């Protein structure tokens, strides 16, 4: 109803509401950080992100309500609903635009995480190929390593190494990853020998 909206607008005290909004800023920041809305790697999944935006905005609006109580101000309830809807829509539009920008950057070779694929079977080869051929995923494979710790017994037969040998091989792997400036490791699960 137009007259109801006009009554609300006539009662708005900008200075008081600005104080309430300022007090609620930490709640908004907490809600957005808690729901990973500031994490670039979570921007690619639209449907999942919509739920995170809704949760983050809800935390912000609850913070706004608590800030009104702290400031001893009574805000009309429709303001909270209107605030939730407008903030949700604005953040969704912003995230959609950001998703497009990030996708464009990733496809052009920017904003990609350097990864190494662990595994030496067909699944690992397919995973490596997928990451190499789909730059929009945001990963750039820089190498592939076997998924087994290798060793030999005293007769030269293949054996499962243990103790110091495993530590040495893991140490060598970590040094290689640092030298190659790898951001992440992608493991082809079927290629990993769980015994080692």
Anisotropy-based shape: elongated
The helix content is: 55-70%
Strand order of the largest sheet: 2-1-3
Radius of gyration: 26 Å
Outline:
With 196 residues, the chain is mainly alpha-helical. It has helices at residues 2-10, 14-34, 46-70, 77-107, 122-133, 164-179; strands spanning 113-118, 139-145, 184-187.
Features:
196 residues; mainly alpha; three-stranded parallel sheet; 3 strands
Task: Please describe what this structure looks like.
This protein has 196 residues and is mainly alpha-helical. It is built from six helices and three strands. A three-stranded parallel beta sheet has the order 2-1-3, with helices on one face. The longest helix has 31 residues. The termini are far apart. About 3% of the residues have low confidence.
Topology:
Layout: H1 2-10, H2 14-34, H3 46-70, H4 77-107, E1 113-118, H5 122-133, E2 139-145, H6 164-179, E3 184-187
Parallel strand pairs: 1-2, 1-3
